[in-house]
Design goal:
With 343 residues, the chain is α+β, with helices and mostly antiparallel strands. 26% of the residues lie in helices and 38% in strands. It contains five helices and 22 strands.
């Protein structure tokens, strides 16, 4: 038994028109989906490009390289020329330390600059002072067909001129560096805080910090070296011992000592010296050497004397200031002090 088949649509009939309309609707729906997907793709690419491939991102990578102490990467991103200077602060711990002094770091949105450049401003504080650094960038080649790349406009790294008194070493951000003839020049990245210092057991210079905000020049640093408390204590102790030795001589003019006394009468008792005030110790640089300032000791002498004419016996007690000087001899951490007397 054969089934009953529906008659095929004749060309030009109403049924054929309906089928064509449905196909068009389906195609239009797919086209709409494709267009929406394409639009979503374009929006996604634009958002990702703006967020992850904008000029701010290049600056962020640069700052991260500074924080990591990666000088090679930072230099590649900054595209800067290195000046003829000491490179101790351009890598490693000295470079990483330059960023620890920056607080509240904020990267601003890029703005239009000259010659199709973008300018990104980085804001931060150094020792409580609000500072900024500007970075100029140019559009580079596309990455993976869709994403932008940005390159910093080439510049030259800044530098800091440093001098130190009577020393041939110093440190920059904790890294020891040589100071030939007490001078040197150090190249730096920016932004950063660079601290210069000199310290040894006998002499030291208080740390001096410089905030470097751009390729412009930075004020020179002069490290004012002076004696440490350890050195002053050593010299003071040596002078004390010397003067105490002088008081042990029971004579009016102790040998090799600054004190002296006289009498026209007969001395009838032992002579006794005592120190009332020891000298203040001051050590200063002079002519590439370290010198002691003139010294003053206040000493008192006591004795009993008999008048040669009247035979009267009387007690004498006399205090007086006596001046002398001393030379310093320093070899390594060994200190020599030699009193010098002018009679």
């Amino acid at each position: 038994m054969t089934g009953i088949q529906a008659p095929e649509s004749e060309p030009g009939t109403v049924d054929e028109v309906k089928n064509g309309t449905q196909l068009i609707k389906i195609a239009a729906a797919w086209l709409l989906v494709l267009m929406l997907a394409l639009a979503a793709c374009i929006v996604t690419i634009a958002v990702v490009n703006d967020k992850n491939f904008g000029p701010e991102r290049t600056v962020s990578h640069y700052l991260n390289a500074l924080k990591a102490g990666d000088g090679a990467k930072a230099l590649g991103l900054l595209q800067a020329k290195v000046p003829s200077a000491n490179a101790a602060a351009l890598d490693g711990s000295a470079l990483a330390a330059s960023m620890t002094g920056l607080k509240d770091i904020s990267i601003g949105a890029a703005v239009d600059g000259d010659d199709k450049q973008k300018v990104v401003t980085v804001s931060y504080t150094v020792d409580g002072a609000a500072l900024t650094s500007d970075f100029k960038l140019l559009h580079g080649p596309k990455q993976w067909l869709f994403f932008d790349s940005w390159q910093m406009v080439p510049s030259t790294l800044p530098h800091i001129d440093v001098s130190v008194v009577n020393a041939n070493q110093a440190s920059i951000n904790g890294v020891d560096v040589n100071m030939p003839d007490g001078r040197n020049t150090f190249a730096t990245f920016y932004p950063g805080r660079y601290e210069l210092e000199y310290r040894s057991p006998l002499f030291a210079a208080p740390p001096v910090a410089r905030a470097v905000t751009g390729p412009e020049g930075v004020a020179a640093v002069g490290l004012a070296t002076g004696p440490t408390s350890e050195l002053l204590s050593k010299v003071d102790g040596t002078i004390h011992t010397y003067l105490d030795g002088c008081t042990e001589q029971a004579v009016l003019m102790p040998t090799g000592c600054p004190m002296s006394a006289g009498s026209d009468n007969r001395i009838t008792s032992a002579v006794k010296w005592s120190i009332l005030e020891y000298p203040a110790i001051t050590i200063s640089p002079y002519g590439g050497q370290w010198v002691l300032a003139p010294l003053t000791v206040k000493a008192q002498v006591e004795f009993t004397e008999q008048n040669l004419f009247t035979g009267l016996i009387s007690d004498m007690k006399q205090a007086e200031d006596f001046k002398f000087s001393a030379t310093l001899s320093i070899k390594g951490n060994n200190v020599g002090v030699t009193p010098v007397l002018d009679y």
